[in-house]
């Protein structure tokens, strides 16, 4: 367990029965640092999707909400399984505080007893963080719990540049500067979450009986505020983020649409009247990467496939993989294929692009879609490629699959990495 401490301010509040616990993510549409950053893709997932996945998989929230004033954020939130609270204009201003927004939420939700306020900008949050911090309210009687991270940073008093006063050290004796291993450091809020009882919120956080902090490891303490943080956060989340159940999946079969995934849906006609399509060499390389890891790759077509059988066979031959030409609905075709190969849904990865792919995308262990796929607006894909279909999307998704395979077989458990080796 990542550690927690309670600071006793008064008597511990008591509760009876099962309090209603609501996870709440505030996602205003008017972000100044990064426009609409809450739904900007981070490592193939909308930023808000990382914390929604953790909240939903924690198993302790009776409801998971997104508070927003923006239509597109509302759509993404619902696709990812959250309920949506449309905040009023009064708490949607640049000057509006989080406390005011949460207080409006509980006024309209009288059933809520505990609010788990989770920051959308903390994509390395895991379900166990939420479970363990919530226990500090439900079992230890805390009113207010917030997340912190330990830092080894020496602080100095700020002075006026035009003045003659020397800066004063605030937490260090300069004559006896400690080594890192000899100093336990200090705790700072990392902004991942703030949990409150209803009573604490109604009192404006001014009458708190029992306060606690929950310490998270540095590798999980990622907070995105400006654009320069984005590439750093992307690398961090690929290593330390929570990927859901698919993190432990062992993929044995990769299925992929031809039109919209391997090709860009364009059909060219030669002078002689022959139909032609183009495929990307990067995608072929991605297919070969999977095959080298003993993952079978099969292209699958639907009954509505615009390409002829002959052209599909040429594409499969060029891509050096198998081909399944659908004679029935795609879901039924995939189920038949799985029976033939004795596979479970969680052993299959699928890249789709059309609305007819929703059923299969929803059931496989791992799914992905090109960024220009119509189906991207209909389902919370585990991975949304930065590249469009026919332009390297398969290569990108193949790299993601292999990243997850590497994570699942790693000897170092990502949740318990020693600080000394970080």
From TrEMBL:
Domain of life: Eukaryota
Single annotated GO MF: N-acylneuraminate cytidylyltransferase activity
EC number from the UniProt entry: 2.7.7.43
Pathway annotation from the record: Amino-sugar metabolism; N-acetylneuraminate metabolism
Keywords: Nucleotidyltransferase, Transferase
Catalytic reactions of this protein: an N-acylneuraminate + CTP = a CMP-N-acyl-beta-neuraminate + diphosphate
One family name in Pfam for this protein: CTP_transf_3
Family note: Belongs to the CMP-NeuNAc synthase family.
Subunit and interaction comment: Homotetramer.
PANTHER family recorded: HAD SUPERFAMILY MEMBERS CMAS AND KDSC, N-ACYLNEURAMINATE CYTIDYLYLTRANSFERASE
UniProt protein name: N-acylneuraminate cytidylyltransferase
Organism, as annotated: Culter alburnus (Topmouth culter)
């Amino acid at each position: 367990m990542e550690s927690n401490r309670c600071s006793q301010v008064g008597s511990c509040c008591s509760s009876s029965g099962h309090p209603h616990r609501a996870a709440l993510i505030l996602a205003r549409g008017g972000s100044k640092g990064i426009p609409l950053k809450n739904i900007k893709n981070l490592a193939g997932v909308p930023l808000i999707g990382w914390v929604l996945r953790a909240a939903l998989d924690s198993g302790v929230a009776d409801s998971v909400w997104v508070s927003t004033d923006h239509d597109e954020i509302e759509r993404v939130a619902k696709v990812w399984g959250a309920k949506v609270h449309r905040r009023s204009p009064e708490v949607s201003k640049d000057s509006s505080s989080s406390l005011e927004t949460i207080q409006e939420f509980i006024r309209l939700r009288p059933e809520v007893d505990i609010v788990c306020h989770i920051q959308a900008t903390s994509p390395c949050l895991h379900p166990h963080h939420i479970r363990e911090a919530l226990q500090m309210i439900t079992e230890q009687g805390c009113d207010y719990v917030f997340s912190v991270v330990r830092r080894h940073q020496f602080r100095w008093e700020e002075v006026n540049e035009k003045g003659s006063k020397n800066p004063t050290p605030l937490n260090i004796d300069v004559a006896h500067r400690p080594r890192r291993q000899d100093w336990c450091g200090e705790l700072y809020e990392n902004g991942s979450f703030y949990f409150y009882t209803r009573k604490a919120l109604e009192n404006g956080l001014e009458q708190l009986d029992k306060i606690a902090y929950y310490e998270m490891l540095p590798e999980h303490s990622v907070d995105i505020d400006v654009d320069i943080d984005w590439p750093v956060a992307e690398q961090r989340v690929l290593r330390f983020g929570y990927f859901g159940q698919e993190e432990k999946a062992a993929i044995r079969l990769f299925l992929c649409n031809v039109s919209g995934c391997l090709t860009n849906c364009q059909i060219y006609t030669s002078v002689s009247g022959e139909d032609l399509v183009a495929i990307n060499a990067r995608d072929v390389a991605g297919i070969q990467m999977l095959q080298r890891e003993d993952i079978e790759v099969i292209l699958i077509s639907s009954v509505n496939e615009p390409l002829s059988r002959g052209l599909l066979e040429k594409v499969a031959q060029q891509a050096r993989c198998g081909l399944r030409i659908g004679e029935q609905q795609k879901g039924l075709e995939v189920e038949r294929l799985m029976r033939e190969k004795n596979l479970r849904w969680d052993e299959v990865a699928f890249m789709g692009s059309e609305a007819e792919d929703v059923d299969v995308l929803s059931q496989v262990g791992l799914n992905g879609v090109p960024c220009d796929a119509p189906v991207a607006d209909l389902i919370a894909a585990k991975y949304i490629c930065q590249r469009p279909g026919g332009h390297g999307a398969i290569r990108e998704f193949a790299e993601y699959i292999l990243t997850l395979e590497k994570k699942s077989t790693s000897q170092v458990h990502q949740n318990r990495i020693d600080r000394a080796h970080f």
